[in-house]
Structure to design on (171 residues):
């Protein structure tokens, strides 16, 4: 994915230099300016997804975090270990580890099956969801995006269940 690396490096150049010059294998910038500079010095945080060694090296080179999809605690632990091994230093510890997780609350019909293991298992309970989230946090996941594969008409009901039943169990 040389093109992805090139584009990430070009974005960093645009975020950090005004005007920016950049020569990459796929991107060339000459005296380029963004219309509005980033609010955050150095640009916004970049989270890079993927499980391959190439993706994890990209996280270490260009990223501020790693982003997974439907991971469990064992996968988060494995990614942390691999990032540390690839970094060869404590550099991997600076990264945010994040993932989207899938949840269909009990009694709420799903419109599509989750593309990975559902949070709390196939028949989630508030305790099971909270336990899964706790294991993910212990493994090093610091940000979790919740994907609810429910129809728009059931979204409020699903979110109310999460707020009333799951959130009070989290510490």
């Amino acid at each position: 994915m040389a093109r992805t690396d090139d584009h990430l490096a070009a974005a960093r150049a645009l975020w950090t230099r005004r005007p920016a010059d950049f020569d990459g294998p796929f991107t060339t910038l000459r005296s380029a300016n963004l219309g509005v500079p980033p609010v955050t010095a150095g640009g916004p945080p970049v989270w890079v997804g993927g499980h391959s060694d190439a993706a994890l090296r990209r996280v270490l080179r260009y990223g501020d975090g790693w982003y997974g999809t439907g991971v469990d605690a064992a996968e988060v632990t494995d990614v942390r270990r691999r990032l540390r091994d690839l970094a060869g230093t404590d550099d991997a510890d600076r990264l945010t580890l994040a993932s989207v997780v899938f949840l269909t609350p009990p009694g709420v019909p799903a419109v599509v099956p989750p593309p990975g293991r559902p949070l709390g298992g196939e028949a989630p309970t508030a305790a099971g969801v909270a336990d899964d989230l706790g294991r993910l946090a212990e493994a090093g996941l610091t940000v979790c995006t919740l994907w609810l594969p429910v129809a728009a008409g059931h979204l409020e009901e699903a979110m109310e269940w999460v707020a009333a039943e799951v959130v009070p169990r989290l510490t």
About this structure: The longest strand covers residues 96-102.
